[in-house]
Amino acid sequence: MATRKVQLDEKQTALIARALADPRRFKILQKIGSENTCPNCELLSCQEISPATLSHHVKELETAGLIDAVREGKSVRFVLRRDVLKAYMKQLSTI
């Protein structure tokens, strides 16, 4: 799968910065990235948080554009948007 070029605007850059500032969200993103794809139930088993709290953190990562939620029947798996993460890191490197 080819990686598409992503251009971040100021709003999305701020959303990503806010999402990554939370240690739990950073840990969740690391888990998703290390697995390439990660089922929701697997995320819950590696975190010591309630399903509602996990849902909140995942929603923040999704809103920032860092992950995609892929629905498969009743389950959901999450995929890291490496193109967005790379665009964010590239933008940070210009500071």
Set out the fold topology.
Blueprint: H1 10-21, H2 23-35, E1 37-39, H3 40-46, H4 51-63, E2 67-72, E3 75-80, H5 82-92
Antiparallel strand pairs: 1-3, 2-3
Helix pairs in contact: 1-4, 2-4
What are its keywords?
globular; alpha+beta; 95 residues
Gyration radius, in Å: 13 Å
Mean pLDDT: 89
Helix content: 55-70%
Element order, helices and strands?
HHEHHEEH
The number of helical runs is 5
What does this structure look like?
By secondary structure, the chain is of the alpha+beta class. It is built from 5 helices and 3 strands. It has helices at residues 10-21, 23-35, 40-46, 51-63, 82-92; strands at 37-39, 67-72, 75-80. It has a 3-stranded antiparallel β-sheet. Helix 1 packs antiparallel against helix 4. The chain starts with 9 loop residues before the first helix and ends with a helix.
